[in-house]
Design a protein that fits this description.
Oligomer: single chain
Structural class: mainly alpha
Radius of gyration: 34 Å
Strand content: under 5%
Shape: elongated
Number of helices: 27
Order of helices and strands: HHHHHHHHHHHHHHHHHHHHHHHHHHH
Distance between the termini: 156 Å
Largest sheet: none
């Protein structure tokens, strides 16, 4: 009896125990997938990164693995293309997309042609792929065939639609089509923020289109970069700097932004800030040619001659901008009075660049090497290429004076002095414009000081011109002209007394 009671109690306990609730992970997983799909279609960089994490989180659920993997492939591929469009560092998203696609042969067949297109997209600013040459012209090869192939599949899904728009814009074909024709094959997806943004940053659109997308989806932090580009095009330097700094605050590992900030600083003549951002760019993306050239110029203007020449050597070694590299190296070598080395580099620059600056610098170097005939030849070439360069006219008259070609010295000195007069008037006008501008006070002070220094240098050059004109007139027995030119030096600390001595020797 007691044994029967125990059994009854046990049976009762079992029958009264609460039922165990079995949770189906697919239910929660489907909610995550829905959020991932929403983020992918929103399309901002952070949205796509969230979508990729959400897709990957649900891949372990068997019932959702195929859908989640397909979504992860698309999100990773979109991130890979967006990084190229933005010019960020390479996070390896394309490789991740390939690895994910390889687990699903059917998906791999569909996306393989899209991956090929993504892979040929140039990185904005030349950044991104460390150690890998950027074949930026590849995007234009077989353009018509690619346009036809991408148009045929553009309506298939969000990734196909995005690659279609991106390639049409990036290859220049979109300029011939216009937005309406580009949108036609993707009518099912065209209104998604993902696609609206890609059209907005196309050269066929503009700032208003970008603002419209951001108004709908405020998470588009990368939009600040493209607003900066628009501001630069409109010559709104402070607006561009502000927008680029917004972009930089969102993501620092972004060589295209640090390069843009450096270029803005160079335009604002803030060479120290420019140098710092060029250095940051080169830390993120070593040997980017535009950053190297910018650093070379900024270092030169900061009188950091050894640093500048080291950067020039890097450009020469990688065979990028060789003419500019040799020119600026020669410029710095001249500043350090290394005249033979400077001559070697300016000759190398002459083989790559055709402008007035190279022969002008060659002429100045030749003067310092006491090769007056060579200096005259190079300065004449510079004058032919740019007759309005005051420095060229100034140094040319010095060479003529050294050669004792007095009539030519007089006319050359007068031409140079007249040029300097015009340049001085232009600098004073710039100073007034700067004073009346809305630029930051620090920039105003810096830019005004630089122009005042140029004016002071011009005054000294002009005084030399008038003295040499007086000497030339003296030697050609034009006493009245000599007195006229000497009178222009009355009170001049350097030439005043010498001019009076010259006049005292003139016949009365």
């Amino acid at each position: 009896m007691r044994r029967l009671f125990v059994c009854l109690v046990a049976a009762l306990a079992i029958s009264c125990a609460p039922n165990r609730v079995v949770v189906n992970p697919a239910i929660a997983g489907r909610a995550v997938l829905a959020q991932a799909d929403s983020n992918l279609r929103a399309g901002c960089f952070d949205c796509l990164a969230d979508a990729l994490r959400q897709y990957e989180a649900t891949r372990a659920i068997p019932a959702l693995a195929a859908q989640a993997t397909t979504g992860a492939v698309r999100a990773a591929a979109l991130l890979a293309l967006r990084e190229r469009e933005l010019g960020t560092t390479d996070s390896g998203y394309l490789e991740k997309a390939r690895e994910l696609a390889a687990t699903m042969p059917a998906v791999q067949r569909d996306v393989a042609p899209l991956f090929e297109v993504i892979d040929i997209f140039p990185w904005r600013g030349g950044a991104g792929r460390s150690g890998r040459p950027d074949a930026s012209l590849s995007i234009f090869a077989n353009r018509e065939q690619r346009i036809d192939a991408l148009r045929d599949v553009a309506g298939r899904d969000e990734l196909s639609a995005y690659v279609w728009i991106a390639y049409a814009c990036g290859s220049g074909a979109g300029l011939l089509m216009g937005n309406a024709e580009m949108k036609a094959p993707i009518s099912a997806w065209a209104d998604l923020p993902l696609l609206a943004f890609r059209l907005a940053i196309c050269s066929t659109s503009g700032l208003a289109a970008i603002d419209a997308v951001v108004a709908e989806e405020p998470r588009y932090k990368e939009a600040a970069f493209f607003k900066g580009i628009n501001a630069i095009s409109a010559r709104k330097l402070d607006e561009a700097d502000a927008r680029y700094r917004d972009a930089y605050a969102w993501r620092q590992t972004w060589p295209a932004v640090t390069l843009a900030l450096a270029n803005v600083a160079m335009t604002a003549e803030d060479f120290q800030t420019a140098r710092e951002f060029y250095d940051e760019t080169l830390t993120l993306a070593p040997n980017v040619p535009d950053a190297l050239l910018g650093k070379l110029r900024a270092s030169t203007f900061l009188s950091q001659h050894e640093d500048a020449m080291a950067v020039a050597d890097v450009l020469i070694a990688i065979a990028r901008y060789p003419g500019d590299a040799h020119y600026w190296k020669a410029y710095n070598e001249l500043s350090l009075e290394r005249y033979d080395a400077a001559w070697f580099d300016i000759e190398a620059a002459d083989r790559s660049l055709i402008n007035s600056d190279v022969p002008k610098l060659a002429g100045i170097i030749a003067i310092n090497r006491h090769e007056i005939d060579v200096a005259y030849q190079r300065l004449e070439i510079s004058k032919q290429r740019n007759p309005n360069d005051c420095q060229t006219l100034y140094y040319l008259h010095l060479v003529l004076a050294d050669q004792r070609k007095w009539p030519e010295t007089i006319s050359g000195a007068v031409a140079a002095a007249s040029c300097i007069d015009g340049a001085e008037a232009g600098l004073h006008a710039q100073i007034e414009e700067i004073r009346n501008s809305d630029a930051p006070e620090a920039r105003k002070t810096r830019q005004i000081a630089a122009r005042e220094q140029q004016i002071a240098s011009g005054i000294r050059m002009r005084a030399t011109c008038w003295y040499n004109a007086a000497v030339g007139s003296y030697n050609t027995r034009k006493a009245d002209d000599a007195r006229m030119y000497a009178a222009k030096l009355d009170g001049d600390a350097q030439y005043g007394e010498r001019a009076r001595d010259l006049v005292s020797q003139l016949p009365r």
